Amino acid sequence: MLLFNGINEPIKKSTTATKNTQLNHLDKRQEFAKEMASTQPSSLSEQLRNKDVSTYLRNQTFLEKAQEAALLQRMGVNKEKLEELKEQLEALDKMLADGTISQEAYQEQRAVIEQEIAKEYEQAQKRREEEEKSQGKL
């Protein structure tokens, strides 16, 4: 490839320019490798690498919460009642962690709350079936 220096003076491209660019690319790659070695991964990345997904599961996005609300509404579940029961479970877990409740009492109360949650889902299913029957008759 010929380059022109001025109007009529062709200059041949030297091979030293290509060697310099190759050296520059090599230097950049080495700098990048050094930089990557010195960076620290985020705590979430570290937890996922160690297969600890509990934090990831706890951090639901707004979209996931909206999808859950839409699903519960479609199923006919009373979301307020369900949230109240979940809060009771969290309070019960906290009492166990604080040591203000015995393990046996904790298990009994947790079983009662879980039965109420199951009952709420059953009632929602019955309401949904009744709605489908009434829509089918119209």
From TrEMBL:
<protein>
    <submittedName>
        <fullName>Uncharacterized protein</fullName>
    </submittedName>
</protein>
<keyword id="KW-0175">Coiled coil</keyword>
<feature type="coiled-coil region">
    <location>
        <begin position="72"/>
        <end position="134"/>
    </location>
</feature>
